[in-house]
Amino acid sequence: MKRLDKLYIGTNTKMYKTIADTCSFLKSLNYLTEDIPSDQMELFVIPSYTALPAAKDTVEDSRILIGAQNMSWEDEGQYTGEISPVMLNEIGIDLIMAGHSERRHIMGETDQEEELKIAKALNSGFTALLCIGETMEEKLYGISDEILRIQLKIGLHSIKKNQAQNIWIAYEPVWAIGARGIPADENYANEKHRVIKDTLIELFGEETGTDIPVLYGGSVNPENAKKLIQMSDIDGLFIGRSAWEADKLNAIIRSVLPLHHQKKGRKN
């Protein structure tokens, strides 16, 4: 099975869920999805920092990937409050997320900082998930495509072609994220995914660029998930609060997995 024949689906629990909550969620999620073959789905959860060691222990015998919500671009040093790749490797973390909207727009992170983090994540042996997205103001100015291209070109500037196999991209329009987010229309989302894929091909070549998974995130819910996953250039879903209960995430997975495989069957 080709890499993009898989459904990529997961959640970031942000600053929610205690250690106990996270472990309970993961145990239930593993039980509910254990019948799905690993070559059909890449399932991931990105919990809070304090829950990471227990989360890894909980999914030790499962195929659920565990990610970190942020990471320093230095192995060690005088960086109070930061977490290094050495520390995350020590507990077996699989995935590093960088560039989430809340890190960019609340914490003030720049495209250049995201580049440093993505490069460090890849050089440290992790899968790197780069989040990109335009604000409502940028959308209204009609510069969404330019913003996405800039975020990709800077965020992946130092990445070599042979590292691209460990890159995932999440398109999350800033205006679509959070409790008051406005879900993007599936056609709009697909248009932006096409821009992203074209840019990845520009950066890494046709074969490599085409093989990078691009996930949609931003107020994904049980109603729009099925519409989104049927779009030609959407390879997976990065879900927020609609996925924070295992049975609800499992229900979304069950509804979109066959649709995803039908779409891939048509394309192949």
Polypeptide structure, described:
Helix 1 (19-33) crosses helix 11 (246-267) and helix 10 (222-229) packs parallel to helix 11 (246-267). An eight-stranded parallel beta barrel has the order 1-2-3-4-5-6-7-8, surrounded by six helices. The longest helix has 22 residues, at 246-267. The protein has eleven helices and eight strands. Strand 7 (214-217), helix 10 (222-229) and strand 8 form a beta-alpha-beta unit. It has a single domain, classed as Alpha-Beta Barrel (TIM Barrel), CATH 3.20.20. It is α/β, with parallel strands linked by helices. The protein starts with 6 loop residues before the first strand and ends with a helix. The chain has helices spanning 19-33, 52-58, 85-90, 101-105, 111-123, 136-140, 144-155, 186-204, 206-210, 222-229, 246-267; strands at residues 7-12, 41-46, 65-68, 95-98, 127-132, 167-171, 214-217, 236-239.
Question: How would you describe this structure in keywords?
Answer:
alpha/beta, globular, TIM Barrel, single chain, 8 strands, eight-stranded parallel β-barrel, 268 residues, 15% strand
Spatial strand order of the main sheet: 1-2-3-4-5-6-7-8
Q: Give the number of helices.
A: 11
Oligomer, anyone? single chain
Radius of gyration: 17 Å
CATH class: Alpha Beta
Proper CATH architecture: Alpha-Beta Barrel
Structural class call reads alpha/beta
The succession of helices and strands, N to C, reads: EHEHEHEHHEHHEHHEHEH
Provide mean pLDDT, rounded.
96
The CATH superfamily bears the name Aldolase class I
Main pleated-sheet profile: 8 strands, parallel, barrel
